[in-house]
Amino acid sequence: MAFNANLPQANSPISSAELRDQFNGIKELVDQCVTPQVLDQTIHNETACSIGPTAQLNLTVSDPPTQAEMQAVVDKLNELIDCLHRG
User: Fold this and answer.
1) Dihedral of alpha carbons 15, 19, 22, 27, sign
2) What is the pLDDT of residues 52-65, one digit of tens each?
């Protein structure tokens, strides 16, 4: 059965068969739009990579910080940003 936006009607008794048909109709519509390949590609393109391999920055910053210390922070931040990008 195809999805019918008019079912169930307001104040109608609950019918498991009618609801099951509605859910199956919605599933058919979703399946037509979201194939496993599309879902996998979307997850790959729209989510971050693992940052597990990124090591912590072991740095004691002086007061005031040196340019080398600040560059180390920038480099580590860029490494983290790179890890979060896919591709």
Assistant:
1) negative
2) 888 899 999 999 99
